[in-house]
Amino acid sequence: MPESLTFDDAATIKAGAEAAWKALCTEGELPARQTVLLHAAAGGVGQFAVQLAKSKGATVIATASTSNLDFVKSLGTDHSETTVMRSG
User: Fold this and answer.
1) SS3 for 76?
2) Where are the strands (E) in the chain, listed by range?
3) pLDDT tens-digit map of 1-58
4) Helix or strand or coil: residue 5?
5) CB–CB of 58/36 below 8 Å?
6) Are 41 and 50 in contact (CB under 8 A)?
7) Core vs surface per residue 49-61: b (16+ CB within 10 A) or e
């Protein structure tokens, strides 16, 4: 475990990975080489979902905020778009 990561933060990583696994592999039964749209791909679940989908050969289309778009692209998405959230 990296020294910069606290035990509390490290403990939360499993939750995101497990949720992505369940959504794509267990419940979702993602077939190989499909196209997947992942919203909030920079989030705790989204970043794992991108990597899991890519490992199954999926084409990944992802959304993220402007500030997270480069990070999402670095995960290997095939197409990444910015989403704008508005309140009210």
Assistant:
1) coil
2) 35-38, 59-64, 79-82
3) 789 989 988 888 889 999 999 999 999 999 989 999 999 999 999 999 999 999 999 9
4) coil
5) yes
6) yes
7) bbebbbeeebebb
Residue with tokens 């670095």: 74
Domain spans of the chain, in order of start? 33-83
Cα-only R_g, the chain: 14
- Which residues, including other chains, have CB under 8 Å from residue 65's CB and lie 6 or more apart? 42, 82, 83, 85
Other residues' Cβ atoms within 10 Å of the Cβ of residue 76: 13
Asked whether the beta carbons of 53 and 36 are under 8 A apart, the reply is yes
Supply the DSSP symbol for 44. T
* Residue 37, amino acid: L
Highest CATH level, class, for 33-83: alpha beta
